Amino acid sequence: MDERADQIRDYRDLIVWKEAMEIAELVYSLTRAFPREEMFGMSSQMRRAAVSIPSNIAEGFGRAQRRSFVHFLRIAQGSLKELETQTLLSGRVGLLSAEQTADLMTRSERLGKRFVQFVRSLSQTENGE
């Protein structure tokens, strides 16, 4: 599905939202294995960042204004970058395996590219291009 604003019926149809939800599910699964002392540390931080991504996509869509939607997509992009940093740190300190880190980073980078393309297409549509 093309994610152009004039063709979107519901945020749950968006590829960026679906991929963000998959990442959030994965983060919850991975952080269940973190040590108990990380419950209020890295585990909590990663979960909050991961949940923020699809939540901001949904909130922005719900505002029903393209400019506001783009603003919330950019906030979601920021949360994705937070999650990437937390993922890399978790790998460095041994909370995630190299394979888990690589998988989560690959998914995050793919979603990040989708965000850039989607925001660009919404901005071009808004500017009449």
Automatic annotation (TrEMBL):
<dbReference type="Pfam" id="PF05635">
    <property type="entry name" value="23S_rRNA_IVP"/>
</dbReference>
<protein>
    <submittedName>
        <fullName>Four helix bundle protein</fullName>
    </submittedName>
</protein>
<dbReference type="InterPro" id="IPR036583">
    <property type="entry name" value="23S_rRNA_IVS_sf"/>
</dbReference>
<dbReference type="InterPro" id="IPR012657">
    <property type="entry name" value="23S_rRNA-intervening_sequence"/>
</dbReference>
